[in-house]
């Protein structure tokens, strides 16, 4: 397989997993979230990634999340299931289940905590990527696993050459390193990275790159038309949309993907709650944002960015289509 075997591109939310106040999995909210993404006309969705709090779920819960998401999306856009775990065996078992649900692909980071060597990393991805016939996305997430694949010479190229690998999600905090990834492997695999800013627009138009997989998707009303404009090579319109997106995301997320006001996932779910979106609650070890000053700051950002009205318009347009 290679990049031409999938049509993955554009704007994808990395879906949060909604939990209830007592920490229970809220499958109704999860299905509603998938329908919200369909209304916003996203290009795909990642389920059980970092934003999905896979680390606080049991394997049975992760399987339920995958089943509910695939069923709710019902083929309207690609669904990629995150199968990150501490061992290749566990990741492979989750990948087999994802294939059985009808998912369109699977994704994994290197094993968290372990700090695998280059050879160990390649072997891990070789094992997990061939556990099924599904297209596979390699996820570089240094913030979560303390290993940056882009710092190991030649490693991305080796991973791009694995039989089932069709894409890389490069979430390094080093933007120039991400551009190196684009230059090195985008002729062979799709590259999702940090492109939702003016520098990213220039890279997409001149260098390459395929899309963003963005925590939660609250910026979808701005990011979806941005990528439509990029596909049409309409730089002027793309700049207008990306400026709107940055007025929201640039005040919430740091370049290293940390949150400006709190941990990224509690911050995201607080914003989703302000927008009336079905993000649900976080699960321990994460804690909800309850500080009134922090909530006021988030409320001010939502108001100043215009995202509430844009979201309502996008949902209305999506349902009318």
Automatic annotation (TrEMBL):
Family: Belongs to the DapA family.
InterPro entries reported for this sequence: Aldolase_TIM (IPR013785), DapA-like (IPR002220)
Key words, A-Z: Lyase
A GO MF label: 5-dehydro-4-deoxyglucarate dehydratase activity
SMART domains linked: DHDPS
SUPFAM superfamilies in the cross-refs: Aldolase (SSF51569)
EC number(s) per entry: 4.1.3.3, 4.2.1.41, 4.3.3.7
Name of the molecule in the record: Dihydrodipicolinate synthase family protein
Enzyme type, top EC level: lyase
Claim: Transmembrane is one of the keywords in the record: no
Gene3D superfamilies, per database record: Aldolase class I (3.20.20.70)
